[in-house]
Amino acid sequence: TRYGFDNHEVIAVGNPDIVQFGLSDDLIGSFLEIEKGERDNVMYIDTALVLRGATFLNQTEFIDHLISTKRVIAKAGKSLVVKLHPDHFKSDTPDLLQEMGVDICPNDQFISRLQSSCAVIVEPSSAAIIPALMGMPLLLARYGKLSQQHFGKILREYPIGEYLDEVSDFKRQLDSLNFKRNEESVLIWINKNSGPLPAELMPDRVLKNILKLIRKMRLS
In whole angstroms, what is the distance from residue 19 CA to residue 111 CA? Predict the structure, then answer.
């Protein structure tokens, strides 16, 4: 009802992000089959808040945030991989981060780099739904300059997700998420939030529903 529509007026046709990022059906829920702690990377998904003048005052603050995150991840015996928002590639931020030893994930390697990661730190982003659909532990970043960030209900209800209010708590919280990993609850969440599958058929579903509405209008 938020946009003036009742529930029965809304038709689910599929999640376009699944197609955009190339998440195949066989990878949905696939992380649940992986042994805990088996992978060495931790991915950070950025939303370019600094470019919108939000949260970070300037580029330096944003870079410092990622470097401090990288140090904590390293102390936990893991390596940080950063998935930057595409808008960052219009600036020199990716080059500066790489000069400082930060591993930048290209857009076309997003899924493969997730497959080599044990967990994901996320800012509020639609891209965060992808690792969740894979069944990966999510840490919702609310530490440092991100302390006032708000996350949507879909991520707040994810069974193996927690707010990360202090980056120094990363290892403890990751261990906690791995301990409480429950396959059944995650699969229920995935089934509720994936949308109709396969996602590639979304255009067909849109067309079928439009034709159905046209026929309904003609008969009324």
Answer: 12
